[in-house]
Amino acid sequence: MFREMRRGRQLMSPEETIAVLERGSNGVLACLGDEDYPYAVPINYVYHNGKIYFHSAMSGHKMDAMMKHPKVSFAVIYQDTIVSEKYTSYFRSAIVFGKARIAEGDERLEAFRALVEKYSGDQPEENKRREIEGCTRAHIVAIDIEHMTGKQAKELVGG
Asked: What InterPro entries does the annotation carry (predicted)?
């Protein structure tokens, strides 16, 4: 169902791909938007328990698109160093394919804690707890991963 990467030599292992997802600070969510135009939006996220989680307003283009067509893709570039003399960049990236859904109950709470920890790990525990308990006007969206691949610049293979 999913295509094989054309440049197999640049394919990263599943462990390396997960490392990119864990280390990245933002990614781009792509879904099918209004009038079937692709809709891609940068988001903060966390990779947690084998899923991608992010927060979202309860309404808007992103939520409308995902609720109508839950199949999405999500891309992260973790490393991207421009090498001007070679007219390229040395990169590591990951792409995920899966289905988006609203996380509920304990899953929502655990995912929100993971998001807060990732983006405010140096804040006092009391502040983090207040943030989690006080956020009632946002969804936590889960992407249940069906397929993922990682790719790196050929110059980084084996290095």
From this structure: Pyridox_Oxase-rel, Split_barrel_FMN-bd
